[in-house]
Amino acid sequence: MRKILAIALIVFGIAAIIGGVVMLYSLKGGGDEKVRYLPPSVEEATKAVI
After folding, report:
1. Distance (Å, rounded) from C-alpha 43 to C-alpha 19?
2. Cβ(35)–Cβ(43) under 8 Å?
3. Are 30 and 46 in contact (CB under 8 A)?
4. What is residue 18's predicted lDDT score, i.e. its pLDDT?
5. I need a labelling partner for 38 at 20 to 30 A (CA). Which of 6, 12, 16, 32 fits?
6. What is the residue-wise DSSP string for 15-40?
C-alpha cells in the first residue's frame, strides 16, 4: 500500500512541476509552442493539477 502511495505522490509531484513550468512559459507569452510539444497525457496531468 505504501508503494502505491509513494508512486502516486511522485507522479503528482512531477505533474505539479511540469504544470508550474508550463504556467511560467505561458506567463512569459511564449508558452503556446512549448505546450504543444508535450504528450497529451502530460497536458491532461497539468490541467488536472492547475
Report:
1. 8
2. yes
3. no
4. 86
5. 6
6. HHHHHHHHHHHHHHT-HHHHHHHS-H
Residue with cell 504544470: 19
- 34's CB contacts (< 8 A; 6+ apart) are 22, 25
Residue found by looking up cell 502505491 in the block: 4
- Integer CA distances (angstroms), 26 to 5, 12, 22, in order: 31, 21, 6
| pLDDT tens for each residue of 1-50 | 899 999 999 999 998 898 888 777 776 665 455 555 556 666 666 666 65
The residues, ordered by sequence, that sit 6+ positions from 46 with a Cβ below 8 Å of its Cβ are 15, 18, 19, 22, 38
